[in-house]
């Protein structure tokens, strides 16, 4: 099932900030937020700087399930992202935001309202700053995942990656049917995993997602692939809830990074 993605604007709080100039735009990074927690209502995202030299830039957004907050500019540096529901903090993540870089921050998993978690529960995840973190299944509890939206030199192709963000679901595979054959875009991808970023030819491309052992596709979508664009397919939902069926969120953005950077795969 393909989901129409609501888009919400974030509130940017900049105190005593100077007007934007060409140099400040070049030194900015850009962050996009995604709410993919199937049994949570509104999530509160807060992104605050942890580095010196910046007075009070912070990013705040109240976001509903399935909504996307499009790219917001922040000064390059180190930040801490927090996500809360009903006033209770659910997770936090420290991240590095390179000048000129584009990033997508996804909150996914199930709520913890019926779980008595110790104060150190968030430390169970090992993190690597700069866009990749350890792929550890935390039992389906909500977690934050950071993706770096960076590509390679080939501007004639599109790019595609798949994120498995559906808690309680077995590994999945994503394919593009072409006649009697199938092009595999992700194979046996575990929950909380991100597939490799792969090149894809421009044009209309159907994508089918199926789970381990399934004969038929569980969800599908159709992409209008454009050259020099990155497409991120996020499989969301949970089979344990009939009112939250499995769906595919499709995000896209043009290449807006230095083309000298290598092809990045999570």
Summary of the model, kept short:
The protein is an all-beta fold and 266 residues long. The chain contains 1 helix and 20 strands.
Could you walk me through the main structural features you see in this protein, from its secondary elements to its overall organization?
This protein is mainly beta and 266 residues long. It contains one helix and 20 strands. 2% of the residues lie in helices and 48% in strands. The chain is globular and about 55 Å long. The model is unreliable at 9-25, 113-138 and 256-266 (pLDDT under 50).
Topology:
Layout: E1 7-8, E2 11-13, H1 22-26, E3 28-36, E4 43-49, E5 58-63, E6 68-75, E7 77-85, E8 88-97, E9 102-108, E10 127-128, E11 132-133, E12 143-148, E13 158-164, E14 172-178, E15 181-189, E16 198-200, E17 203-211, E18 219-225, E19 229-236, E20 247-254
Parallel strand pairs: 1-6, 3-9, 13-19
Antiparallel strand pairs: 2-5, 3-6, 4-5, 4-7, 7-8, 9-12, 10-11, 13-16, 14-15, 14-17, 17-18, 19-20
Mean pLDDT: 75
The end-to-end distance, rounded to whole angstroms, is 25 Å
Low-confidence stretches: 9-25, 113-138, 256-266
Shape: globular
Largest pleated sheet:
5 strands, mixed
Strand content: over 45%
Structural class: mainly beta
Observed structural traits:
266 residues, mainly beta, five-stranded mixed sheet, five-stranded antiparallel sheet, 2% helix, 48% strand, globular, disordered C terminus
